[in-house]
Write a structure and sequence with these properties.
This protein has 202 residues and is of the alpha/beta class. The chain contains 10 helices and 8 strands.
Length: 202
């Protein structure tokens, strides 16, 4: 039986992938998140070797490994799940590679969410819910849109400007969990930030 989908997702980008303290912060997040934390190896501009190296370093931390886009790396490191974007392989292709994976899809509106559900995604990464420096040119979808997507009866992971002050808000809008980049990796106390977000999701 597949373990439950983690409620907290700490997602990397190229900047975080190249930080010298990556492993230390990942371990701190794992102490705060435990089995309810997924560490996502993500970095669209990373080379294949860099992406593998990132995922490898995250895989040795006591948490759950997810890999974004690079299904070959997910296979090599026995990841628990994969996160697919707009230009990624279809959900059905990922499913054929490993039926035990959690297969998620990134969506930005209700139409994309409905298409991802029809495609067979296990969960949806929805955002940006709030304005975020990670995607400065993309307007936030807001809590009302998040709530409509959450009614599709797939677990929804809210991303985009979500921090320890907003986790409770997105849960009230119907989110199953939250994902963050800066809100976790750039926290002055990553362990506390992870545990506090999870506390607000109860």
């Amino acid at each position: 039986m597949r373990p439950p989908l983690p409620r907290l997702h700490a997602i990397t980008d190229e900047r975080i992938a190249r930080r010298s303290d990556l492993a230390d912060v990942a371990r701190a997040l794992a102490r705060g998140g435990g089995a309810n934390l997924a560490l996502h190896a993500r970095g669209k501009a990373l080379s294949g070797l860099e992406h593998y190296d990132l995922a490898f370093h995250l895989s040795i931390v006591p948490s759950v490994l997810f890999v974004n886009d690079r299904l070959d790396i997910a296979i090599a490191l026995k990841a628990r799940g994969v996160q697919l974007g707009t230009g990624s392989l279809p959900v059905s292709a990922a499913r054929r590679l490993d039926t035990a994976w959690w297969v998620g899809k990134s969506v930005h509106d209700l139409a994309e969410a409905e298409a991802a559900r029809a495609e067979g995604a296990d969960y949806l990464l929805v955002g940006p819910v709030y304005a975020t420096a990670t995607h400065p040119g993309r307007p936030p979808i807001g809590l009302d849109a998040l709530s409509r997507i959450a009614r599709l009866d797939l677990p929804v992971i809210a991303i985009g400007g979500v921090d320890t002050e907003r986790a409770r808000e997105v849960k009230a809008a119907g989110a199953y969990g939250v994902a963050a980049i800066r809100g976790l990796w750039d926290s002055a106390d990553p362990e506390r930030s992870a545990s506090r977000m999870l506390e607000d999701l109860k």
